[in-house]
Design goal:
This protein is 65% helix and 10% strand. The protein is built from 7 helices and 5 strands; from the N terminus they run αββααβααββαα.
Length: 165
Amino acid sequence: MTTTEHASQTDDHGDLWLTPGELSSWLSVVRLITRLPWAIDGQLQRDADLSMIEYMTMAMLAEAPEWTMRMSELAERTSASLSRLSHLVKRLESRGYLRREPDPSDGRFTNAILLPAGMHKLEEAAPGHVAFVRHLVINSLSAERLRRLGQDAERIVQRIDSPAR
């Protein structure tokens, strides 16, 4: 059967095969979502001795009131499992960047708290990270294309997070 014949076959979920244009676009997205995190992680490791997930975790805490967030919420925001986040926070604790403590409003929960040394590390890492993100992504697109990319990415994330999934 040829690709054209495959393309004409459908199942209950729509087209069974991607068209050549869809396949080309999809493979570009796959390369982007696999290579961009790798590139950003490499820059952060080289320049700041932080992984991308460590940087993201500290950045999320820096934006939180009193630099504090429940571990469960932090796991959700960083797209990390609670187990993975726990190991990561333990590493950051050993480096003096974070601490954990029971949530005073509900002792069943644990809070992660960014320490001043962690904020200092984040502030040191941010300029190089922002410059690299600008170089790779921001400056590669017009303002309109960047806005549309953000909207498209958000639409896909909403489908991923949809309860109907």
